[in-house]
Specification:
37% helix; alpha+beta; 2 domains; binds zinc ion; 11 helices
């Protein structure tokens, strides 16, 4: 693997486990590996979390000392409060740092000839909002913004929004090998939700119940709702010919998914506090536009 040196340390941590300090190497799971582990807060009972956390640890930990981590090991780690806390902290750092490495290219709506390049951190600062959390209470995988239809953000009249939201995924920045590097993002709620309803009919309702591996493709699974809605919102992904299916989204790295979930929230749902900070003058035609969508 050729991970950018700046990010390499995020993948390595140490835990106190069974009386010894051990090296832990983490990996970034695909969103498809963890989406079913995302629970709404009222469902996070100790009983369910004692199943969910070991399942997550197993997918997250590449090695513990010399060993890979099976489910028994993962359960023992979760039962050890100190070790579990250290792994959760390392996971939070890994996911949150990597997910903010993506870039936005906002197209000028006046001339369509220029794009403003903005980091997700700079966009967050400009909007004085967000980011949408990846982790709740420093513990739990948060419910993504795309799991529900959020109201459109308030926009002041005058300056028009960007005409196209293009992006580079975080994995293309920190150089984890993935086939998809960039694309363009539209709105999950476009056509008043018709596109989303069509996607449910197409990918879930009309299919035979019980297709192997798709047991969690359900409306009551918040991580799946978010994956399906992201498939609807994505207009284009480099390297994907034809339709963007829920499978394409579930195959993405979780940090790429979380970047897009946050980007969708920032450009569509955040109320604009200060249009001066969130707008830019086009370097081709000189006219101002917002870095987010109208
Ligand atoms: Zn322009």
């Amino acid at each position: 693997m050729t991970i950018d040196k700046r990010f390499e340390s995020l993948f390595h941590s140490r835990v106190q486990f069974q009386g010894r300090e051990r090296q832990v190497e983490l990996r970034v799971p695909a969103f498809g590996e963890i989406f079913a582990l995302v629970l709404e807060s009222q469902h996070r009972t100790p009983e369910r979390m004692s199943v969910m956390f070991p399942a997550e640890f197993k997918r997250l930990i590449k090695s513990l000392g010399e060993n890979s981590v099976g489910i028994e090991h993962a359960r023992a780690l979760y039962a050890d409060a100190q070790a579990a806390g250290q792994i959760v902290a390392a996971r939070n750092r890994l996911f949150e740092t990597l997910a903010e490495q993506g870039l936005l290219y906002a197209q000028c709506p006046h001339c369509l000839n220029w794009e403003a390049e903005v980091s997700i951190v700079a966009l967050t600062v400009a909007l004085q909002a967000g980011p949408w959390p990846i982790i709740d209470g420093r513990m739990f995988l948060a419910v993504p913004s795309l799991s529900s239809r959020l109201p459109r953000g308030i926009r002041p009249a005058g300056v028009p929004g960007t005409s196209r939201v293009r992006f580079d995924l975080p994995s293309s920045v920190f150089r984890l090998t993935t086939p998809i590097r960039s694309g363009t993002l539209g709105a999950a709620d476009r056509n008043n939700g018709t596109s989303e309803r069509a996607a449910w009919a197409r990918w879930v309702t009309s299919r035979e119940v019980g297709i192997s591996g798709r047991e969690q493709w359900r409306e009551d699974v918040p991580g799946f709702r978010a994956a399906l809605r992201l498939a609807v919102a994505l207009e284009h992904l480099q390297g994907i010919e034809g339709e963007i299916t829920p499978e394409v989204v579930l195959d993405m790295l979780s940090v790429d998914f979380y970047f897009l979930d946050n980007l969708h929230y920032l450009v569509h749902n955040v109320d604009l506090q200060n249009d001066k900070k969130a707008s830019i003058n086009c370097e081709a035609c000189g006219l101002p536009f917002l870095l987010i969508v109208d």
